[in-house]
Write a structure and sequence with these properties.
- The strands form two sheets. The chain has a five-stranded parallel β-sheet with strand order 2-7-1-8-9, sandwiched between helices. The protein has a four-stranded mixed β-sheet with strand order 4-3-6-5.
- 46% of the residues lie in helices and 20% in strands.
- Helix 5 runs antiparallel to helix 6.
- The protein starts with 6 loop residues before the first strand and ends with a helix.
- It is an alpha/beta fold.
- The protein is built from eight helices and nine strands.
- It has a domain of 135 residues: P-loop containing nucleotide triphosphate hydrolases (Rossmann fold, 3-Layer(aba) Sandwich).
- The mean pLDDT is 93.
């Protein structure tokens, strides 16, 4: 008998090293899958429909919003992104855990829809270190970096909404903490009670 999977949400300001941690987590932890969002933006070179995103037209997105087809959705830079309710429920029904990488606004909406979701925020070691990481990418102008830093501050202000805060100073330690949130949730009494009951009845 398997129980429905858990929902994990991870958010972080840009430059906090979230994607490195998330990619390793999904590779290393069995029965943990990465959520695939629906989006109205066009695929970038190398992206595959159904692997990176589900790419859909605006009118289909509108219809899904109308029909309550999203657990959460947001608009970012003129495109919309949403977590599909049916897709998520199908995955959870197989007993797999689902990890959603969503920014803070979407995460707070998701918490309303799924109160039992476990929410994890990746913290940069400091504002200075975050700015250095953004600069070292060499992709952004000073003006863009200032915008990103303002946005990061706005996201950081929402840390109290999260259950776990993982500081990414030492990558190895941050990874172990991140992974341990998943493993500890799987060992919680709520999740293991049906199995324990089954074993007890065998005595």
């Amino acid at each position: 008998m398997h129980h429905p999977g858990n929902v994990f949400v991870v958010s972080a300001p840009s430059g906090a090293g979230k994607s490195t941690l998330v990619q390793r987590l999904v590779r290393s932890v069995p029965d943990l899958i990465f959520s695939i969002s629906f989006t109205t933006r066009k695929p970038r070179p190398g992206e595959v429909d159904g692997r990176d995103y589900f790419y859909i037209a605006d009118d289909r997105f509108d219809a899904m919003v109308r029909d309550g087809g999203f657990v959460e959705w947001v608009q970012v830079y003129g495109h919309r992104y949403g977590t599909g309710r049916d897709w998520l429920n199908e995955m959870l029904a197989t007993g797999q855990d689902v990890l959603l990488d969503i920014e803070t606004t979407g995460a707070l909406n998701l918490r309303k829809a799924i109160p039992e979701a476990r929410m994890i925020f990746i913290l940069p070691p400091s504002a200075d270190s975050l700015e250095q990481r953004l600069r070292s990418r060499g992709k952004d102008s000073d003006e863009q970096i200032a915008i990103r830093m303002r946005h990061a501050r706005h996201e950081m202000e929402l840390y109290p909404a999260y259950d776990y805060l993982v500081m990414n100073d030492d990558l190895e330690l941050a990874y172990r903490q991140f992974e341990s949130v998943i493993l500890a949730t799987r060992a919680s009494r709520e999740r293991m009670a049906p199995a324990a009951q089954c074993i007890l009845e065998g005595f």
